[in-house]
């Protein structure tokens, strides 16, 4: 659960799930009307964005989490947390 929350939060923060990055997913799902996940993947990679493009987004996400967010977390102090709560 924590891993999914981190991935989702970072993806949203860095806008990697925006239409300009992943294409018009809702519209594409309606157009495809997939019955299985494999059917959706085949359609998506053929008609919306390439698998290589999505893999590159995954690599960017990894860098954002392991370099940007990790350094920001390392800078937090207990007093930062107390001040935030107050």
Describe the protein's architecture and organization.
There is one protein chain. The protein has one domain (2-85). The longest helix is centred in the C-terminal third of the chain and has 25 residues, at 51-75. It is 79% helix and 0% strand. It contains six helices and no strands. The chain is mostly helical. Helix 1 (2-13) packs across helix 5.
Quantity of strands, as a count: 0
| Number of alpha- plus pi-helical segments | 6
Indicate the low-confidence ranges by residue numbers.
none
Summing up helix and strand content along with how strands pair, one would put the structural category as mainly alpha
End-to-end Cα distance: 28 Å
Question: Helicity level, as a percent range?
Answer: over 70%
Radius of gyration: 17 Å
Q: What is the ordering of alpha helices and beta strands?
A: HHHHHH
How many separate domains make up the residues?
Answer: 1
How large a portion of the residues is in β-strands, by DSSP E? Answer: under 5%
The pLDDT mean sits at 96
The main pleated sheet reads as: none
Envelope shape: elongated
Question: What attributes characterize this protein structure?
Answer:
86 residues, mainly alpha, 6 helices, elongated
Topology:
Layout (H helix, E strand, L loop, with lengths): L1 H12 L5 H4 L2 H8 L4 H11 L3 H25 L2 H8 L1
Helix pairs in contact: 1-5
Describe the structure in brief.
This protein is mostly helical and 86 residues long. It has helices at residues 2-13, 19-22, 25-32, 37-47, 51-75, 78-85.
């Amino acid at each position: 659960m924590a891993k999914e929350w981190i991935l989702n939060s970072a993806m949203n923060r860095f806008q990697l799930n925006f239409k300009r990055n992943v294409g018009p997913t809702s519209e594409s799902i309606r157009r495809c009307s997939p019955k299985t996940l494999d059917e959706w993947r085949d359609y998506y990679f053929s008609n919306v964005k390439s698998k290589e493009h999505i893999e590159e987004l995954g690599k960017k996400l990894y860098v954002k989490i392991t370099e940007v967010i990790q350094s920001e977390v390392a800078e937090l102090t207990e007093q930062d947390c107390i001040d935030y709560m107050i």
